[in-house]
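User: Here's a chain of 78 residues. Predict its fold as tokens.
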Amino acid sequence: MANRLLEICNDWQIMRAGILERNPDLNLIIRECDSLIESAVSSAHSIAHRVEWDTREAAKIAAKISAEFEAKQGGDHA
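Assistant: Prediction complete.
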């Protein structure tokens, strides 16, 4: 996901330069777009980090439950 966000930001910088070259009077609008893009990228990064953390935590809990289940199954057969 990080690579895709970097690509999008790079694409925007290229488009931004072209727009400002042709229409310097759009500077304020472009700055507002910059702000919106920065906010969107920050939110996407934060969400991706939380999802990754949640996935790792879920894997830890699943492994613990599986180990407890296996221990219980082994104890039932003894």
